[in-house]
């Protein structure tokens, strides 16, 4: 990625799941930053083989397939592959919450019909209002912590919505222990959060020290408004990019680093 800016050697704590953190780390280092990874959450599949027939029936009876995250897309496609359900997808129109989720789906052969301009559930639900007709059925692939915004928006309009919980988010206790060790060994210029779950896991481990970190000049960066709100519940303010993506966070941190350098 080329942003044309630099992190000027700043140290960035990345708290997202280990499976997803590699790209973030690479981009930080490409921008002359130093990334420290601590996975605070992990994802576990919830669907069993016994649920395959019910899963297939709901897919076949739906006209729309909706994804609220890359994780939901990943677990969905893994389940489809494991249980040989690919033929059940050909009739479906697809909606994705953001460009990363859309790109992931299209890399795996699914054409995406709807992506909102702003990558949040409310915008996804509003975008679907322009495409889904009353009487149609919508299949939502999601995690157990995902909000039911799409369902609450569409059902009053006569649109049936079936939600399937494909994975659950749990604390990564090994990662939390590694975080505590890292915090005693070095300081951080930026601490980043890409979900409310990472915020809560971090604060569970470090709440007593978080206010001190903020007061000492560490900048907390959250990917979007919901994550920002989660951190504010603990009294910690954060910076949030205009575009709710990893690249948006990087551009924001580059601007903040430049500002700090020129002070």
From TrEMBL:
SUPFAM superfamilies: HemD-like. Pathway: Porphyrin-containing compound metabolism; protoporphyrin-IX biosynthesis; coproporphyrinogen-III from 5-aminolevulinate: step 3/4. The keyword Cell division does not apply. Gene3D superfamilies: 3.40.50.10090. It holds the Pfam family HEM4. GO terms for molecular function: uroporphyrinogen-III synthase activity. It catalyses: hydroxymethylbilane = uroporphyrinogen III + H2O. It is an enzyme of class 4 (lyase). One of its GO terms (biological process) is uroporphyrinogen III biosynthetic process. Residues 24-251 form the Tetrapyrrole biosynthesis uroporphyrinogen III synthase domain. Catalyzes cyclization of the linear tetrapyrrole, hydroxymethylbilane, to the macrocyclic uroporphyrinogen III. This is Uroporphyrinogen-III synthase. It comes from Bacillus pumilus (Bacillus mesentericus). The lineage of its organism: Bacteria, Bacillati, Bacillota, Bacilli, Bacillales.
